[in-house]
Amino acid sequence: MPKFKIFLASIFLLLTALPVSAFTFTKGRIIESDEVAQDQYYLSTFGIQAFLEEKGSVLASYTTLDIDGQKRSAAEIINAASKKFELNPLFFLVMGQKESSAITNSTVTSAIDDCWLGYASCKSARGFTAQLYAAADVITNKYLHDLKTKGSTVSGWKVGTPKTTVDGVVVNPQNNITAALYTYNPLVGRWGGGNYRYGANSAFQKLWDEWYQPKKAYNYPSGSLLRIGDAIYLISGDVKKPFASMSALLSNYDPNKIIPVPAVIGEQYITGQPIRFPAFSLLQNPDGGVYLYAHGKKRPFTSQESFKQYGFNPAEIIQASADEMADIPDGEPITVNQVDPRGLLVQNKVTGAVSYITPQGERSDVIAREIFDNRFLSLEIIPKSPEEIAKFKMTKPALLKNGTIITTKKDKTIYIIADGKRHAFKSKKVFKKYGYQQKYIMPVSKKVLNLHPQGKEVDLKKKQQKKNKKK
Amino acid sequence: MSLIFSAIVPNNPKIFLENSQDNSSVTAIANSIQELEGELYFMKPDTILLLTEHGSVVPEAINVNIESPILADGFKNGLTVDVGFITQLKNVINATAQSNLVTVVAESTIPQEIITPLSLLLKHLPETRVVIFSMANFSLVKHQEFGEILRQLCLETNKRMAVIASGHLAKNSTKENALDTLCLNFLKNKELEKILHINTEVIEKSKSDLMRPLATLIGTIAKMNLEPKILSYEHLDNENQLVANFTLK
């Protein structure tokens, strides 16, 4: 039975909610692939909650009875239904917006309360959870099941066979999910040359295009600071580490450089251990041992002498819990007669050259002022004789901090430093799309640029859908 | 990332009812709450965590109310619950070995003992989201440990969080009773940990409903270098009412 009737009731809400932007409707492929439509892990409960909050949705504060009679949040209920019916949670969010503006509406309406997914007549499935389970059940267990087993849905939609929609557009579905969507709602609607009064499947695709990001579409380099939902994270490879204290953030990073990103992008990073303490904090275990928190590790002081030798102040010791300490990986013990575990900045008394001595006792020359300003402003410079400096084994020159954005006067390419390499943005448009700001680009000399080997280009992964737009 | 406000507030509705009468205790409480409310208004939290011994109490677990909105006198649109925070809490709790520590209920109405502190503090911020925790029958130390979980969640969110312990000190007693004396001394001397180890008999005898919320609050604000400031301590309606604020040193 076609499900489009109820759709009429809520369509007018939709027409005002959709922003107008360049959009090309791909009528035969509403979602790029069945795999994407059935990616039940695309958003976690947190991701759904963050998504609802960033859209200002009433559903962010919405609780109702779940299928088991327990009261849960909308995000939890959507996540559970996505898993049960193996559908992408975004599928329901887009459907909910299309049918009842549930995602951008900040107040609850009867359309949201009773019929948010526009399923059937509302009488057979009234209420948030009933709508969700009924719609998900019919899509997965009826339409998609029929397509897989019989090659056609109950109303005759099938892959590779043109059929005319109720609003008079011939559509040749290119995948099962598209055939299922036309069975659910057999209209193209206003954004695809169909009936102007309805949003229908063209509205679904328009919203999907705006909200869906392919996995790894954005590949933020290590050192980037992202605000995802209501938390701030440091990106380190595929991991996002939440900051658990403002001082941990401020001690090492510039909060002005935080980039707000949509929840769907943030979800693609694994959540790592929180960053709880500022760099070089002194932490005390409940059992009494004192550690230096450096470079994400805890380094135990082996004696009071080693603690005193490097000029640490006992008043600055932070009492940490056993759990907090257990979260931090172990580092090398700090003994006497090592290099200061925070590193040293030394200046050659004869030449004036500045070098950084790593905690491991290796010497990295600071070859340019830009590098000094970027990394070592907080360290005191200690004058030393050339002989004393020569005792430290020379290694590669000091590099710029991860996350630093650079360019040179002659070369207009913009780079970001990550893992000691310079990664060029493919274009200025890509740079902007990622959310980086022009004002934080640091001009550097060619010499500094060339210190950093060329890394991977920073680009955007394109969506597949438009390749098939003629179909 | 920010716990911006923490306080102890009474929960007796008579603070409202008797406000118009010439009663010096009520005046002192009302004045101190007004000061607190002004401070809270200035800090503008996104979410308030209210810790109480009232509401749907389940002895074996700390109870959190997920109903949203909650109907409450004085709040025209009801109280909006921070559902996201509860979802996050559930996830954290489920990931630990203490998955029975918290239960979730959905109560659309709440008793006056919960409405009162919220009404007193949110007079000018009625849209602030709330999360209401009804304490369990655990020890004070276990409540403090739960407070530490709340602290971590507060630190990891970018929202501005406030935490309020609500209740009264001793009941059916004068101001000079053992529990109140100990509590006030520990607060004045900034020895919050000692509050957790007050003799159970002393607590039970006092009939206070503040101790478990306070223990949770202590866990939440631990290591934050906050200084307790007692704004008023008065006897009203046969209960000893404490208003206190914790300010950054």
Automatic annotation (TrEMBL), chain A:
Question: Where does the record locate the signal sequence feature?
Answer: 1-22
UniProt keywords (A-Z) are: Signal
Its name, as the record gives it, is Hemagglutinin-related protein
TrEMBL record, chain B:
Top-rank taxon of the source lineage equals Bacteria
Database matches in Pfam families: LigB (PF02900)
From which residue to which does the signal peptide run? none
The chain positions of domain Extradiol ring-cleavage dioxygenase class III enzyme subunit B read 26-238
What Gene3D superfamilies does the record point to?
LigB-like
Q: Which GO terms describe its molecular function?
A: ferrous iron binding; oxidoreductase activity, acting on single donors with incorporation of molecular oxygen, incorporation of two atoms of oxygen
UniProt protein name: Extradiol ring-cleavage dioxygenase class III enzyme subunit B domain-containing protein
Q: Which organism is it from?
A: Candidatus Kerfeldbacteria bacterium RIFOXYB2_FULL_38_14
